[in-house]
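Good morning C.,

I know you're traveling, so I'll keep this short. The sequence:
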Amino acid sequence: MLTIKNKAEIAEIYLSGEIVDDDFGGVIDFWREGNSTSYEFPAKLKAQLEGVKDKELEIHINSYGGSVFAGVAMANFVANHKPKTTCIIDGIAASIASQIFFSADVCKIPTNGYLMLHRPFTITEGNAEDLRKAAEILDTIQNGLETTYQKKALDGVKAEDIKEMINAETWLTGAEAAQKFKVEVMQPVKALNYVGDRNKLKAAGIKKIPAPLNFLQENDSSANIPNVQTFAHLKPNISDEDKIKIALARAKAVLV
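The tokens, ready to paste straight into the viewer:
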């Protein structure tokens, strides 16, 4: 859920949930009549930023990530915002959400917040050459992501150290993140709740989910996107073509 609150000189933006591409996010936004709870996408963030382009930003993140290309676009929006930007992890900034976090001028995390880095993940099909090409693309994507982490790394943290953390799927608390990156550590929050589904992380190849991490809507079916077969019952003017596009986008998306 992306919401924005205006103060006198600072705009507060809340990014909470899975990061998806504009096509998918647009369908969900349409289905939920403008209230895309649990899903964030570039077009929505860009529209919000247009209204506060002369204000400083305070961005609150609570997301396990999602689509790499959507997340990179959102990170670039934040990086290109001219007034000062501050990102604060309210619970978790995992995977591509960590790229948005590090795109800000100032990065803050509570001692018991979570930052997670891991390798890009995708589902593909084809012959041997297709699979080799997919692996090459994932390597190229990872090289780009590593560049962002390197810019925010402390002196003494080498490029090889960043790569090793990514390859190993590394979860860092705020205190641990401060030993590797240029972040400000805040007081611990009372509760850590991520808006999302633990099973989605496992399906994306994430294996080391910390035990203390809670999922606020883990048992709330309303937080889940309906499967393709149910879309026809939700809005009569969602075409079969749109439903096919949604299914293909979800099956082939690169996730980090």
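Safe travels,
E.
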